[in-house]
Batch of 2 targets.
Target 1
Amino acid sequence: MKQATLIMDRDYVIGQVDPRVYGSFIEHLGRAVYGGIYQPGHPTANADGFRKDVIDLVRKLGISVVRYPGGNFVSGFNWEDSIGPVDQRPKKLDLAWFTTETNEVGLHEFDRWAKATDTQVMYAVNLGTRGPDAARNVVEYANHPSGSYWSDLRIRNGAKDPFNIKLWCLGNEMDGPWQMGHRTATEYGRVACEAGKLMKWTDPSIELVACGSSGSDMPTFGSWEYEMLSECYNEIDYVSLHRYYKNPTGDTANFLASTMDLDAFIKAVVSVCDAVGSKKRAKKKLHLSFDEWNVWYHSAEQDQEVWKRGKWNRALPLLEDVYNFEDALLVGAMLITFLNNADRVKIACMAQLVNVIAPIMTNDNGGAWVQTIFYPLMHASRYGRGTALRPIVHSPVYDTKDFEEVPVVSSAATMAEDGSVTLFAVNRDLKEDVELTADLRAFGKMKISEHILLHHDDVHAVNTEADPDQVKPVAGPGGVMDGGHLTVKLPALSWNVIRLTKAE
Ligand code: AHR
């Protein structure tokens, strides 16, 4: 058995965990909205046509904030199409996903769904085919109490109270040539600055997220952030990061090491933000919104087949990745990376939530079930609250095709207000268990209240509607607390949540 040690102290503080780091994303894409969250006529549908089985799973997952309505979709979207009487809303071609958008679900409906799921809306405006005028109008519509054209229209459309959307994305992936209205960094920085200015003049209480790079592998990564922030640093509050990982060659060791790239990506964006801030002599520090992250590759071929069968249908079954056990391990390691950067990463949205690269799946003619990646997010959201502490870990390391000196044990820790501590750990070793010894003397007398374990002997094991419990958490082997030292076994290839509470 391999050995690892860890030391923690209540004073090794990284930062407060912002609950919005447990966010997700619903785009008008595939069966996320139609057949996912919304399906009037389904046996579980509520009066608004939203599936109650899905609402219950979203609540179980513990999502704080949901980014909406895109994604690539938003860059061709007219928000006005999504308000007013449903039967009068236009059907439009969505050039992002080659689908027809019926606009049956729009701003009012989504606000009601967010209330039903106890989540906040993070609303994206179109800075692709549109600009500052449409952006400030939707803020007025959503947030101004009354007495203006757009706020009174909202009231006439049935919402007396403002939606009070606090978090707004200034477009989506504007660095990507696939984006409708793709711009250069300076062009985007200018439009983000002007749109952001008008949006904050309309409602000074809102916060704004500017588009960073669509991935650390973009050729413009770094210069994009620098040039765009040179234009809009003062107007915005967060820079977005997006990152999806894949394992098409079946190299599990390399795949699970992808968080080395994730951590470097976060640190690089922080550096550029601070460089621009210093150059501008800014007092304000920018934070990060990792508003798209996940594993995404399983559905690539299937999507080509779906489009071959016919574009422009409503709710084409796109991006329906079936996640396996190793994907859940990487998702857990990604959450650990966010916690270890809690001082700067304040928002993170698993992309996406239902049916589209999602932890929750539905059958139009049946039920809903959860994929493997559901569990680490649920655990982190439930127990990873309070203060993020920095565990000093001494772990064996390994090398892979793309990474060197990858720690076998990846871990993060949080301390709640009542002094209880949660340790999250992934053992990336393909074969060997690790005995982890943690020095917790700084916390006084503690006891292990729970060890949750996610493990499967087959990294390719999946959950399906017919067999939904192939991969699910179980009680772990636990461990021993002795003189402030915890000893616990982390099985090979496992996600572990070790919850510690005061002994008396
Ligand atoms: O989440 C799926 C897509 O990935 C989003 O629409 C886009 O922003 C990203 O490229």
Target 2
Amino acid sequence: MTSITIALSKGRIFDETAPLLKAVGVVALDNPETSRKLILATNRADVWLIIVRASDVPTYVQYGAADIGIAGKDVLLEHGGAGLYQPLDLNIACCRMMVAVRDSFDYEAAVRQGARLRVATKYLHTAQEHFAEKSMHVDLIKLYGSMELAPLVGLADAIVDLVSSGHTLNANQLKAVEEIMPVSARLIINQAALKVKRKVIQPMLEAFSAATKKNSLVRRSKVTT
Ligand code: ADP
Ligand code: MG
């Protein structure tokens, strides 16, 4: 029997992926949020889930340690996408990559004056590209989390981070001043696995695609009613 492994991260991605997985016919036998297991069996004897850090998902899939993964566009851009096939935007974990500064900071003026800004972020590659495109000189500072703190304690003038509701920014007297891009989670597949395990992977890809369409139809009707 050809078995396949799907790499997922806990938290947001898993919460929003679980219903899709169910629609595809895959249900984990343990709850990843509470289980300490990193390899989870599913209702399907030929499908396994592995639980990894969100930013590690593309790496596991790139090297074939997982055949399929679900990763945010933010993470995929930083990884670079080598060895990955990215056939499907799942339209989940939707948010925006934004530049944010302190409420009192005049970002427009700083940009106009060509000020050299210090920018703290987890997304060095994306930030680098964004400011280069705007011909802005910035000093990037790599952080691994809680970016919102950096402008408050003088570590940076600005941050590049993901924003959905904006509540975290508000709670910390920050404001979003520029959108870099919309972000959502994508299905990724190891390029070699897609060829070798096509019989198992192709139907699963089609099921994900159908479940995603159904999902966005439901969402659209919710918006219009
Ligand atoms: P980590 O803390 O390991 O970075 P998160 O659960 O915060 O993991 O983020 C995992 C993924 O969820 C991100 O790569 C991104 O694609 C998505 N994500 C992060 N923040 C948000 C948000 N505010 N709204 C929607 N999706 C988000
Ligand atoms: Mg986080």
